[in-house]
Every structure is written in structure tokens, then in C-alpha cells.
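The aim of this short unit is practical: by the end, you should be able to scan a pair of folded records and say something sensible about each. We start with the first protein, listed as its amino acid sequence and then its C-alpha cells.
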Amino acid sequence: MDFEASLSYLRVELDKAIKGRFPVDKGVISKFVSQSGIAPLLSEMDKKKLTRHLETIYGTTQQTGHTLTEDFKAWYPARKPEIPFYYWKRLHQHWIENSVLPIQVVQTIDNVTDEIVGFLGDPNDTNNWKRRGLVMGHVQSGKTTNYSALISKAADAGYRIIVVLAGITNSLRYQTQVRLDETFVGKSSLGSDYNVDVYPISYILEGFDGSKKTPRHPYSGTTQSSDFSVKTARSVSASEGNFAEPILFVTKKNEKVLGRLNDWLRGLRQGSPLEGPMLIIDDEADNASVNTSKDPAKTTRINERVRALMKASRRTSYVGYTATPFANIFIDPDTEDEMLDNDLFPEHFIKSLSPPDNYIGASKLFPQESNDFSKACVKEIPDDYQDLLPLKHKSSQQVDELPPSLEEAIIQYLLVRAHRVLENDGNQNSSMLINVSRFNFVQQQVSDLAYRFLHQIRNSVDTWANSNSWKDSKLLTRMASIWDAEFASISSNKWSDILISLKQAISPIEVKLVNMQGGGLDYTDAPDHGLHVIAVGGLALARGLTLEGLTTSYVLRNVGAADTLLQIGRWFGYRPGYEKFCRIHATEQMISHFTEINESVEELRHDLIVMEKQGKRPREFGLKVRHSPTGIAITAANKMRTAESIEVALDLSCKHAQAFELFDDTKINRSHLESLTKFVEELNSDKTSDTAPRDKALIWKNIPAKIIIEFLSKLQLPQTIFAFGNNGDSLLTSYISDRVQSELSHWDIALPFVNKSSDKNRPFPYKEEVFCRSRHSGDIEELDQGKIKVTSSNVVADPNPDDIKFGQPGIEVKAQKLMEDDTDLKETHATLMSRERPILVIHIFDFKDKKNKSKLSQGEDLVVSVSVGLPSTNIPIKPKSYAATKRFLELLRSAPDENETDEEVDS
């Protein structure tokens, strides 16, 4: 079968059938392929592969995301009909005609980048201007694709100088240069006129309007082989910076390189700023670009260079792209004035992108409640590495052998390769990631040992795979056992099939060192059978670099900062047809941190959605993240200017905050129960309160806020991110007090229960006919000073938002309407946005955990905790100052200074 020819035929016929209606249901596509005119010529394997490809192209959907803006001036919509599109037209046509992206994803990118271009400065405006914005994506979700479209449209609109700051490693800069050569330049920028590859996109418009066209190409101020230098710029002809075609620079974030570029640009007009207009795309904008100096009066060298680059032109637009926007872009400045004066703060717009629905991200792999998919894909590494390759080690660490768990991970990668060969997908690029050290010397040893292990397997396959005596090979027997345990239940192939295909699957695989010394990955020269690598490295594998067809990951890294940890997740992305075969091997602590961090990051993304609906501005979101405990904890300590004190605020607008940290103390638990009993008696005796018993909860309506604050002040709950504190000293009670005369003046109270007796349910001590809810799930994390942290999200409140619906009939209808209008909106947020009054939910349960020896988990005493559900607010959040002691930072979360590089990067 000629796959491309068959796909083209089916696409033409399918386009006729659907008549532009998207998305197309999977069942429709499967039926269409099986009944098509070429169906008799196709094998079942061919039909399966074509169906999967068509499902991706026609069935994938993507939302347009959410935006906060400062002063949007809609210049682009009016100018768009007059713009002579060339670069964008050919890129759009290339994506559609060659099935590079799903059709509806292309439509979404078109709409989103139209919006972003409109936020940039108008290139026809000859006044001086600076525009700054941020685009928030997800790790490995297509940010480069988005800014490829943005650059193309900006160039068509009149931008003439385009600078892409592509990370801090040579491998990432090279990868970005190649991607932009393919999507924007149209030919390989090799620094000479010899052996230049002209990419297919250059000819996509040839004959588009019935005429022959000579391809246009932007100037290239950098090449695939070289970062910016005066030598690379000599071929660029420009009179005082007036470029006939746009000029593209793809540079590392290196102070020497950026200094040379800035000097060259300014030299075009003898030191004066250029006319521009200039567009700066800052990829991985939270890394290296931001100012990490602990002295507020100083800046780091790279931050200084980037800010100077913005001033090289009178008219400059700066757009940062990142999946983890929580460094000091938001939280570093000491004052709001300084934050806005920071040339990298996204003052004018923040755009949050929504990933396509086939994106495999942290929410699917590390959900609060694990599911069959996450359990199958995410594997906890046993302690077999401790003696061989401890988490904490020096650059001189000797590695004599691979941990057995790493050998097993390598075998899993080989087995999936064999499966994909049998599925007729063997020529697609594939990879495995091994990230176990930040030191080049250690990485080299691991690479050598992985190569040796792969060689041993090759020898065993060559000797035994075609023999009936394959069980005599310990390695093949081990591989058979791993196949049966991991993949047999999800594959139509049997071990005997896998055994036969192993030689073909393994033969093209190479072990490649990807670091400052070993180089990167070059997919442009991939052979016809694909590039198949076991990539061993550190930072170069953890920031922006794409490993195509990543199947298996093995990570042993001691990472403290959340943004750095998320960026290690190269396994996020798109795995069409083989997502169930992917495996992520990580330590128990890393898996736990990923789960917790993902929840925090998603919460901030949803905060932006809520703020968008409230008409908030970027500076308000910036201040929110800057002050919030989540924002502080989510980035490295050296990205905070920690002097003698630090300001922390809590924005509980549309939040369901839960006190899931508890004291492991019998006396405290009993005092809580006594306080609750008295509180309920007082509520029932108050004739003015509106009590409303229900079959799922005791409910009191319209309760004055003063009573709520008094009750919360009696509870001794640990400082769970400062939301709940002891003796009323908490950000929660401060937040309520600031709104006690307006939005939070009166509350609903709910005390959920179950109405069936069982061995698991104990009766309330004051109401025998109803019973406490039990909690028999969730992990317990031991904290210091007699505290424990219950890490399951449903230990306090139920995982669905039912607890915050009490007291307001019909709230489901209002919430459902909001979610229909915005499919990105979570039910919890929609419910809280629909509430007329805030709600205090009191949780009383017996918590039993036989695995844990804590007093609380023995179930001797009933446990009381609380959660609060709060509607939107229009009152500004007031931060509180706390001493920035070591203990303070520990309470937030361990957030050590992160090394920006594994080892030094050459300029």
C-alpha cells in the first residue's frame, strides 16, 4: 500500500462526505474507511493505520483558550483584509494539504494567533511603542507551532526584525532553528549557498493562483550550524536596518551572544535605535530571561541583555512563551510600580492556550484520583538504584552498573518498538529518555552502560530469537516476562510475534548522549526507517527539547522547584495509537510532587479563566500569582527576592479551599468535636437562622459572617498554605473579614452525613439517626511537629463539587449553563460562580488507615475538618507580610535554588 496516496484519496472523498462539518466521530471514520472504494485493496493493518490517522486529522478538537488584556486596540481586524499574506498563507496551506496538523487545530491556531497579532504593536504606527505579553501553553503541547504561525502573520503585517530566544542549550537552539526554517524561512539556513535544502513549504503556493511563483525567503541572521555572530550576519544586506524581507535570528539565551546581536543591530544606525518594527519571541520565558538577582537594585546578565535588546528598536513587541509562567515574571518585583516597569512583565496581555483534546498531559498522567491509564503508564521506581546511582551524588560519582529497574525500562522500550513494527508503525521516529544526573561525567557512564546492555540484547536476539530454544536465553526469558506483565493485555500481538520482530525493531536503535558535550538530536536527516534513540542526558532533555515518538522515560532527579520539575516531563505530548504503551518511571516522591504541582498549576490556569470573566487585567493576575502561596511555592527560591520579609495573599475568589492538614493529636481532635457540638447547638437554638434539613446534610442558611469567623478561630488546624491557621491568624479569616460588610456578609453552612448504618460509619454523638462519612482512602504524609498531611483530595471533601452545592436549590442548572458557554470551565468553579452566598462545609468523619501508625488514623476519635466555597469578589486582595525565615520557606514547600544549567554552556 502507498500510504500517502491512499490517505490523499480518502481525504478527498471524506471532505466531500462531511462538507466541512467538524469534528467527525471515530465510528463514522472507521465505517467510511471500511466501505471506501479502495477498501478491497487494503489489508486490515492498512485500514487500521489509515483510520487512526484520519481520526486524528478530522476528529481532534481544540478550544481557543482564555485571555487577560490591558488596553486592546483592535488594529489587526481592520487591517487584515488589506495585508498581502504570503508567509502565513503558505504555512496554513502546508499544514492542511500535508496533514501536518488536525484540521480543527489549524483553525484554532489561526483564530488564536489572529488575536495575539492584534495585541502586538501595529507595524504601521510610526510612534514609539513597546508591547509585552505572555502566552501560557502546556509542556510539549505545540507552543513552537503557535509562534511559527504568529511569526508568519507578523512578517506579513510588516514586522521586519524577528528574534527568537530559544532556550539556553545548543541542542534546543538548533531544534528551534530547524523548525522555523521548515515553517517560516522555507530553506535550510546552513550559512552558505551550497547544499541548501529548499523545504516543501516554499513551493506550496506555486500555481496557487494559476501563475508560477519564485519562492520568497526571509533573511537568516543565524544558521542551523551557528548561533549569531558578525560572520553569520555579513550576508545580510540592510541599509540602516531597512530590510527588504524579514530577518530571523534564533539565538541562545547567552549573554555574549545577545550582546553581539544587540551591538550589531544598533550598529546598523550608528548606535541609534532601529525603526523596526521588531518582534521578540522568548521561548521558555521563565528560564534564564527573568531576573533572579537577590538584590532588587541589580539584574542578572541575561535579563539585562534581553531588556537591552528590546530597546534596539523604537517599536518592539515582546511575547514570552512558556508552560510554567511562575518565575519572577510575576513575583519578583518588590512593588507594583517596579513590576510594571520591568521590561519583561506581560503588561498588555496574557493568553492561556488550551491543548488539543488528544494531548497527553499532567492531568491525565498524574491525576488526583489515579485511573487505569495513569496506573498503567506511571511506574514507581523501586529502591534498587540507591547503591548504584543515589539521587544525591557528586560530579565524580562512579556508576558500575545500571539499576535493574532501568534495564527493565530499556527492555520496555524495545518491546514497544517491536509492537509498533508489527503494527506497520515501525518507521515512525521513536525514543526513550534517561535523565538520572546533572553531571556530564555521570551521564557519559550511564550512556556507555546503556549501550553495553543494548549490545547484549542484540546478541541474544541474533542468537536465540529464531530458535525454539529461546527460553535458554536469560535475557529473552526476562523480556517475555515483561511483555506478559506490561503489554500482552493491550496488544493483539502475541509474544511469539514480538520475538520474530525484535531483530528488525532493535537494529536501528542507537544510544545517544544529549548534553552540552554530546550534542543534540537531528531529525532533519532521519533515515527512511526513522530515527530511534535511547537519549541519555540532563538539562538538555528537560527544557523545550522534543523527543519524537517518546515511549519510555526513566528519571532519577532530586528537583525542588515545581516549574523545573514540570519541564522535566518530556513525556507529555501526543502519542496517537500507542499512548497505552508509554511508560514513565519515576520515584515515589517525584510522582507525588507531579500530582500536587499539576493541581496547583491547573488551579492557577482556572484562576485566569475566572479573572477573564471578571474583566481583570494582566497586572491583577500578576499580583495575584506574586502574592499567592501557590505562586511562591511553584518556582525556585532564587527566583524570589527574599529579603527580611515576604508578602503573601490569598485570593479565594471562586475557590473551594480545604483544610487537609491535620494535627496528629488526640486532645486537639477531641476539642474540635466539642467545639463543633456546641456550634451546632447554637445554630439550632438561634431562631433567626434558616435551618433546612436535607437527606444528605444538615444545612443552615443566611448565617452572619461573624459567627463563621468565631467558629474557624476555635479550630487548631495546621497552616495549610496559610489558608487555615491557629487562633484565627490566617489568610482565610483575613479574607473573610475584608468582605464581611459586603460579598461575604451572610453564609450557608452544611454538615454532610450518610443516613445508613454500617461497620464503616459511626453515628454523630448528638444526632443518632445520621452517621459520619468515613474516609478509608488517601495517603498520609508525615510532617513535623505532630502534623500529618492527607494527600488524597477526597479525604476532606468529595471529589465532585456536591458539597458546595448545598443551600442553594437550582445551582446545578446555573453551573451547567456556564460550562456550556465555556467548556474549559471546571464544574467546581462554575458552581462557585453560581453561588449567591458563600458556604462553610463542616466535615466530620472517622479516618482509618491500617497502614499508618498515626493516632488519627487508628480511628479512635472522630475527626473534624472544614472547607469553604466562596463566590467571586470585586474587592482587591490585601497581602500580609511574613518573615522570610528558613522555616517559612519550608512551610510553603521545599524550593531550593535551581541550577539553570547542568554544566556551563559555551557561547
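Turning to the second protein, read its sequence before its C-alpha cells, just as you did above.
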Amino acid sequence: MPTAERDSFALFSAAVNDSFYIQTQVPIEYTDSTAKRYPVVVLLDANFHFPMLAATIRQYEQGGLLPPLILVGIGYKSFQDMDSLRPRDYLYPAALPSDELTASGGGNHFRQFIVNTLLPTIDSTFRTTKQNRSLLGHSFGGYFTLYLLLAQTIDKTGEFNNFIAASPSLWYHDFFLNQLPSTLASLSRRDSTHVFITVGGHENPTWEVRPVITLTNNLKKNSALHVKGGVYNQLEHMDTGQLSFLKGLQAYYR
């Protein structure tokens, strides 16, 4: 049982062979009841995004703009570690020479950490509901968010229902994630899958804006999916995360 509204702890992943640093925030009302359970929102790049999103979710909860949620941020030992290790964890498969970056393709190992280690730990520690979970990611994290959706569809599992991908790096590995629409065709309406994809209007038109628009339009053709999002005209790449997370959460929970 948590002893504070916010807490943090290290959690080792055998799949990745490394430790991640987890930050949590429970609802304001959490200690008022011993029976009520809450949806879980998992946030990537927590070193950067968690302090801002946690504070805003708290204000939105107080103002009635969001219901009570349990926020779980996955981070690294330091901001510098996050910057260097996120390509290892968020990308799959391994990078092509044309990607012009070093990425080992460890996204599947990171997914195993989330599914087999993190979620069971959170569910055994907090009063959670295993339904209506959300995964939030920006940039490479947005890519991983959509990759996990692809992987859980192929494996016919359903750890998450809601996916928020802000400015996902769709160009990676020669647009590997363009297979999403055909793979997600296997979903049925009972799967209740929600996808929220955004991009900033001031991002690169060829490599960032157009691919997001195309993927979003193709996903909207699937009647089993609930697809929202779009282009935030005045925003650049680093600006889209927080706004996308909040609007996506409101779309899923309000």
C-alpha cells in the first residue's frame, strides 16, 4: 500500500537486463476508500514528462476535467541515461543504415518488461482495474506505443486498450509501422481499442507530418478502432507531448 500520493522505486528487468526507475501518482481520493479501483496510465520518458503531466492531471482531477487515475511513469536513473538508452528500449526491429542511428531493436524486450514485470507489480501494489489501461509516448516513445499495439494484436493479448502516440517516429526502419492497418484488421469491435495520434504542424512535412496523416487516415477505415488526434498546427516536435497526452486522456476517460 502506498504511503504517499507520489512515490518512486527502482524495478529490475530480466528481459532488458537493466533497472528502470518508476514514478507513481495515485488519485487525491485514494486513501479515502479501501475498495475503489482505478485505471492505470503508463507514461514513457518519465524523466522528462512525469513532473509536468502528474501536476496537470492533479489539477484536472480537482477541476473535474479528468476522473481519478493512477499515473505510472517509466524512467531511467538520470535524464542523461534516458537520452542515451531510449533508442535501445523504444525501437524495434534493429536500425537500418538509412536510419542513421544506433538502435539494437530492443523494443520487444522492453515490452516484456512492461507486460511481465511492471504491470503485475503495479497491480499487486495499488488498487487497479486491469481494464481500460492507457500507454502514452512521444517521439521514439510514440513509436513504441504503436509498436506495442502491433505486437499485442499479433500475439492476441490485450494489456492496453488506449494508445496515445505524440509525434511518433514513423520513418524508423523504412516505415516499419505502416503494417499497422493490415494487422489491426484482425481486431473486432469487442476489443475496444482506442488510438490517439498527433503531430505538430511545424514538424518536417515529408518525414513526420505526412506519414502521421496517412497512417491516421488508414486506421480510421477500420470500424473496430476508435481513432482520434490530428495535426496541431502551431506546434513543433517537442511541444506535442503534454497536450496530446491530456487530450487523449480526456477522450478516453472523460
